[in-house]
Amino acid sequence: MTSRELREKFLSFFEKNGHKIVPSSSLLPSDPTVLFTTAGMQQFKPYYLGEKSLFGKNAASCQKCLRISDIDEVGDERHLTFFEMLGNFSFGGYQKEEAIKLAKEFLDSVGIKIDYVTVFSGDKEVLRDEESAKIWQKLGFSEEKGTLRFCGREDNFWGPTGEEGPCGPTTEIYSQDIEVWNIVFNQYYCHKDKSLTELPLFGVDTGMGLERLAKVSQNVPTVFETDLFGLIMKEIKGDDLKTKRIIADHAKSAVFLASEGILPSNLERGYILRRLIRRGIRYGKLLNLSHDFLIPLAKKVIEIYKDIYPEVLSKEDEIIGIIRGEEEKFEKTLEQGLKEFKDYVLRKEPKGGHAGVARDQMILDGKEAFYLYQTFGFPKEIMQELCKEENIKFDERGFEEELKKHQELSRTASAGMFKGGLVDSGEQAVKYHTANHLLLAALRQVLGSHVLQRGSNITEERLRFDFSHPDKMTEEEIKKVEDIVNQKIKEGLPVVCEEMAFNKAKEVGAMGVFESKYGEKVKVYTVGDFSKEICGGPHVNNTSELGHFKIVKEESSSSGIRRIRAILE
Ligand code: ATP
Ligand code: MG
């Protein structure tokens, strides 16, 4: 069956069986302790904790996932960084028996043979899962035949995503020697200190990789021969299969990350995108691919997914622009950087020594690594890989120390330049604080929802605001933003503060990247129906207090980040 048929069959099977079909949530979760969505259950996390579900007791989805932690596994038969996870979920609805039977029935219906299943064997804290074992036995599986196996915590216990959350024992389904489907019984809450308490309601959370299901259904050696990769793989010329797979994987992840408005940078999500693109390019060099080979690959990715995830098509120009921009940046310095690295290795190699032994004792020191990082834009992980290839050590600590030293230096420099800081609560500064919220909302209205706040610095005299956006703003855009902010000031909108739980704040659509945890109380400031942000305050009571808003400068701050200076007159 094609991946499209499998995706559709999965969702319609569960719809028929009383599940509400829920669209994939974004790759960027609202849980700030997690960089990316790594599993289908993430968007339903609160429902396992007793919050009322918006979708009833049973739901099913096909969720975009990104697991950067699997990057070194990519290229084997079953691991990808980006993949789609099919899942059915129950929050206080059905339990083990129905969950297992549904899984078996679905796989039967698409002609997939289960080789064996695994069940939790129990440990000091949690009992052996006899109930699941019995259910599988009734369906014809047994230890004697080797089709029912017991495994410990490492294999058959799942969660939590992030620092804390629901978790529990699992039962897993294997076909053609790979794990295809994981069925989790969310019976416990795992706290930050790793202790477990029982959850008030029984939860079922399952995950099955669509690519793995397609591999098994299409009976091909790896996920890269399925129809979810065929077109991309065909486009990559060269002999080394594993290298081609890594390139195909990274091209796909890069497209999906870029489609969510992420821009390459040296921080967090942006850094992951940068790393994927640059790692893809470096592997492309090993196959002697032409310099802009990622572009046709990205186009193939868009072709494969455009009907399922329309955002890859509607954002096509941005995605291609982002990848091309990063490619050009890296290309400029890559060759030179690689040469520099090779020269360094040669310089360091002791003359006349036994090469193998000498190499083992060689090290890329922190200063040199930082030089490569800063001058040629080599992500740390690429240097680690290069060192591994050359069989020399990488001084990770030394590198991190250099990095920190450098960051501290640039921080003191900017602190010296602008007196005052973020929390200057003079009367004028409070006005700027509110103007800050209006500005963000106006920028998103004019430029698009990829605009996120990346930094802010307020004094009594002015507002400085950093935000994600790939291009210089045009005169016209600047004018539009000013006009909107001034219009909102003229409208005299009330500024209202409400306290609510963090997850509630996210639910009502409040902006703001905050370190708050599930359940923790946060303040949400609402300006009319124009802006809603999680923020500590303080703010003015009404926008009419602000005066006239003016943007005095728009400039680049760093790659993909623009900076605005604005004043209130
Ligand atoms: P594995 O042990 O094979 O890495 P896992 O235990 O990490 O799998 P789960 O966390 O249980 O997998 O995820 C649920 C399902 O999602 C898996 O059964 C598999 O089908 C799919 N899956 C997990 N990780 C990946 C990946 N990196 N690439 C593709 N599919 C994946
Ligand atoms: Mg894994």
Describe the structure.
Helix content is 43%, strand content 22%. The N and C termini lie far apart (65 Å). It contains 19 helices and 18 strands. Strands 1, 2, 3, 4, 5, 6, 7, 8 and 9 form a nine-stranded mixed β-sheet that branches. A four-stranded antiparallel β-sheet has the order 12-13-18-17, with helices on one face. A three-stranded antiparallel β-sheet has the order 14-15-16. The model is unreliable at 410-425 (pLDDT under 50). It folds into three domains: 3-221, BirA Bifunctional Protein, domain 2 (2-Layer Sandwich), CATH 3.30.930; 230-410, no CATH class; 419-568, Threonyl-tRNA Synthetase, Chain A, domain 2 (2-Layer Sandwich). It has helices spanning 3-16, 45-48, 96-109, 130-138, 153-156, 210-218, 230-235, 241-259, 268-286, 294-305, 310-314, 316-348, 355-361, 366-376, 380-390, 396-417, 427-447, 475-490, 502-507; strands at 20-22, 58-66, 82-91, 116-120, 148-151, 157-158, 165-175, 178-190, 196-209, 363-364, 393-394, 453-458, 463-468, 495-501, 521-527, 531-534, 549-558, 561-568. The protein is globular, with a radius of gyration of 26 Å. By secondary structure, the protein is of the alpha+beta class. The structure holds adenosine-5'-triphosphate and magnesium ion.
Q: In the CATH scheme, what's the topology name of the largest domain? A: BirA Bifunctional Protein, domain 2
**Main sheet specs:** 9 strands, mixed
Tally of separate helices: 19
**Count of domain modules:** 3
Number of beta-strand segments = 18
- The CATH H-level homologous superfamily of the largest domain: Bira Bifunctional Protein, Domain 2
Bound molecules: adenosine-5'-triphosphate, magnesium ion
- Based on CA atoms alone, the radius of gyration comes out at 26 Å
Q: What percentage of the residues does DSSP assign to strands (E)?
A: 15-25%
Low-confidence stretches: 410-425
Amino-to-carboxy terminus distance: 65 Å
